[in-house]
Amino acid sequence: MKRKTESQSIQRKLFRMEFILIITLAVILGVAGTMVNINFETQKRDRNLQNVAETIANSPLTVHYTSDMLSGNEQEVFVEYLDSVKESLDDIDVISVVGIDNIRLYHSNHQMIGTVYDGTIPFFAPGSEDYYTTSENGPSGAQRRAYAAIYDEEGKQTGFVMSIMLMENIQTETKHTLLLFIVITVIAVLIELLISKELSENIKKDLLGYEPDAFAAMYRIRNNILESLEEGIVAVDNSGKIQFTNGAAMKMMGSPDIIVDKVPVKNKNDEIVGTVEIMHDRAEYTKLMEDLAGTRYLVDSMRANNHDFTNKLHVILGMIQMEMYDEASAYIENITLVQRETISKVMNIVEEPAAAALLIGKIARASELNVEFIIRDGSRYSLSDMNIPSESLVTILGNLIDNGFDAMNDCNSCRKHKKMMLGIYSQQDALLINVTDTGHGIPENDMKHIFENGYSTKGEGHGTGLFQVKNIVESLGGTITAESDEGNGTSFSVKFQRKNMENKNV
To answer: Quick one: which of 21, 109, 402, 458 has the most CB atoms within 10 Å?
Structure first.
């Protein structure tokens, strides 16, 4: 009877200590998490307000309208444009554009268009940012505002833009955040209390029967689990019995598209007593990349980089598991240097970020296809020389490079050493792009049809890429030509000149 009383006393002490620790941690983490979240949301809200105001202020339509004071149909276009911007932004309550004479040229409430703005006039100090965020009082009450200056082509201020969020809505959002954190904290405390009770009971049982080695094995297994919770985790002992599995692992089991890493668990005598299996869902990574990408070609580029990076991670993991630490360190240093040099080279050559990101991905893809990707000497693209819309440039480069990859990949009789050569040259008011591959080439009879919609030698579902490229190039006032030597390769050249683009009103 005395032994039972002592056991219960130990259990109560463990439970009381765990209870105090859980409550303390829950409160500290809840308060800290709430403060961090509110601060983060405040900063994000200000950045969002600034981005909206700055984007509208820098819009060519806004600059043109505030400079020339258009009217009629053009004024309706301007109002419709800003209305569409406002409708797409759920968290922005008011957008207002004020001319240099303090007349509202646009307001989310159309009744205020053309009225005199009598609020705070923003001041943009010379040498400072052309936008800032502040708290003000307006017709709708307390507000959080972002001001952005509008300048004409000569650098003269022609007005300013205000993007506004009402403090009433901000406070409501903050209350929802606080309520969410309180609910999560309470749920976490309840769950932890249940876990603590179960744990204290298990510890009591273990103290009456288990050997110290069991504690060591449980500690090592749990330590590995805690360090790998973001992936699917399965702990297995030497008999093949599953000791632990998390929710992510349950969802992944049975899926053919997973990668499994096995980590041995050893006791203090360096004997293997089980394994921890870490499961990675490749489909989730792919889906995440596709959700974040803006275009098909940027998705392909990120997928190539991810695949290449995954392969390198497995090489590093294999070296570590074989205890080849020096080789792993040298391998990491080497791939880091190569990746840094590739990114640096592309970024120095191409100023347009989206196009540079595309090329970095295509270089990684070329490595997987055993294709040597060469950027020709002298290549350079400066936005100040010729500013082609980023989405158009990405589509042009992506289609032409992918066509070259396909040509070399489908060519069984091509030379073993496959090359993709890219030249991109800009000078004042002109741009030349040249993409050359060493694929199977294009038969002479097919050359006159390659830019036709739906024409392809690959079968149904193809034949739109070059047609799309040709339409984009010609819509921008450029020209595209192709030369091919059957059996040796194909070269595409795209040329742009500013005078031709002006004729197209680009």
So the answer is: 402
